[in-house]
Design goal:
With about 190 residues, the protein is α+β, with helices and mostly antiparallel strands. It contains 5 helices and 6 strands; from the N terminus they run H-E-H-E-E-H-H-E-E-E-H. A 6-stranded antiparallel beta sheet has the order 1-3-2-6-5-4, sandwiched between helices. Helix 2 packs antiparallel against helix 5. It starts with a helix and ends in a 10-residue tail after the last helix.
């Protein structure tokens, strides 16, 4: 009888599926949009528009920000209110650590991190953020709809696109940002 009860418990365990419950989407405030710096070459604008659209469709990202040498070149997805998007994103210690280590940092649940206010300028109330450095001067930030929303394949896709930007577009990015340095930092809207 003891052996039979153990066998029944094991059969019950094998039939039971352990599936983690997915987190609910956060009610993020913002309007859908695209802000692309008009000082970039047309081919680079097309690449950034295409890549950002793919990231927003293929991953659970709600918004993204691409920054090169401290200048916001691209914002897409849910955009914060006009007053907070006028100023460039100023990364804090988490962004600096990702840039210095040249490794991505995935913050799966921002409620648990003491430095979460660093990302309020990206979009207030984000539950998850990926900080992906590229090159020595670039930073790609993605905000997710829910906690623990970015999978390993999402992170691989994000890293692949930033590697492409680094290899193919680093010189153009440097030239464009260098040319724009003498102008006021005012992103164009497409």
């Amino acid at each position: 009888a003891s052996i039979l009860s153990v066998v029944l418990m094991l059969v019950g365990l094998l039939w039971t599926r352990i599936t983690p419950e997915s987190a609910d989407r956060a009610p993020l405030a913002g309007e859908e949009g695209l802000m692309l710096d008009s000082g970039l070459p047309d081919a680079l604008q097309r690449e950034l528009a295409w890549g950002s659209a793919q990231l927003l469709t293929a991953t659970p990202a709600a918004c993204l920000l691409l920054q090169w040498r401290g200048r916001d070149l691209l914002r897409r997805g849910l955009l914060p209110e006009a007053a907070s998007r006028a100023a460039a994103f100023a990364g804090g210690p988490i962004c600096q650590r990702a840039q210095q280590g040249e490794r991505p940092i995935s913050l799966v649940d921002l409620r648990l991190y003491p430095g979460r206010q660093e990302f309020e300028a990206l979009l207030p109330g984000l539950p998850a953020v990926v900080v992906q450095p590229f090159g020595a001067c670039g930073l790609l930030l993605l905000g997710g709809w829910s906690a623990r929303c970015f999978s390993r394949s999402d992170l691989t896709w994000i890293e692949g696109w930033t590697q492409k930007l680094t290899v193919e577009w680093a010189q153009e990015l440097d030239a464009a940002v260098g040319a724009m340095a003498s102008e006021p930092a005012e992103p164009g809207s497409d």
